[in-house]
Design goal:
Length: about 250
């Protein structure tokens, strides 16, 4: 299962992700909202780094993820993270079931690509729409098809003193899926390492089909943006953002 073993070292291998910058960008979209943003869902929250950053800025945060291992890290990280401590739910996107409404939902770091069945993603969009307040914002990013195709055959390495990860990306045009095969090594003692394997997959969604799914879920005022930008995506941009609103 994805993140079963990677969860414990995920933060070390993604130390280059500038979460304060991501939170700054999210807040720029919040500032454009006619609806005051107070309660925010971090969908596919992972280890909760972005959840903690937004909680520290005063938002009432809910984190949802399908990985128990990632949620365990997130819950520990977010203890006393803000004026209101975040709550976490073990839920897949398509099975989202909240106890009340939210003002905004964010889904970041290409988590949408991890939903590899379009029908499942369409259901997830409908679930988000159900729990958003009228006028609420749904903001997410995706890796573009060009980026995923360009990863085909590439090999990557992440390591620190106690963990080592080597992974290869393989893109299938027929399936429209980029598969990451990961070999993970964890230090047990000075002379003993443990090896584990994980497989991750990302689906290459075309921007137009994502817009169709959003409209089908009931969203309106759908806009596309460049990576952490407030302008339209530039040609060849590898990551784009979608901002969609529920009708007031």
């Amino acid at each position: 299962m994805a993140y079963e073993f990677l969860a414990g070292c995920y933060d070390r291998f993604t130390a280059d992700v500038d979460y304060p910058r991501w939170a700054d960008y999210i807040e720029k979209h919040f500032a454009r909202s006619a609806l005051p943003i107070r309660t925010v869902l971090d969908l596919a929250c992972g280890t909760g780094s972005l959840t903690a950053e937004l909680a520290a800025r005063g938002y009432e945060m809910i984190g949802a993820d399908c990985s128990e291992e990632m949620l365990s890290v997130a819950a520990e990280k977010c203890r006393s993270a803000g004026p209101v401590e975040p709550i976490f739910l073990h839920q897949a996107m398509e099975d989202l079931d909240l106890y009340g409404t939210i003002d905004a939902c964010v889904c970041c770091l290409d988590s949408v690509n991890y939903v590899t069945r379009p029908r499942t993603l369409a259901r997830a969009f409908r679930r988000v729409h159900t729990f958003l307040m009228p006028g609420g914002l749904f903001l997410f990013d995706v890796n573009t098809p060009d980026k995923l195709r360009g990863l085909d055959g590439q090999v990557f390495l992440d390591e620190d003193a106690d963990a080592y990860c080597v992974w290869r990306a393989d893109y299938s045009p027929r399936r429209r899926i980029c598969t990451y095969g990961m070999d993970l090594f964890f230090r047990e003692t000075d002379r003993l390492w443990r090896r584990e394997e994980e497989v991750h997959e990302e689906y290459a969604y075309e921007p137009a089909e994502l817009e169709d799914m959003l409209r089908g879920a009931g969203f309106r005022h759908i806009r596309q943006y460049g990576e952490l930008k407030l302008r339209a995506p530039a040609p060849g941009e590898g990551r784009i953002f979608f901002a969609a609103r529920k009708e007031s």
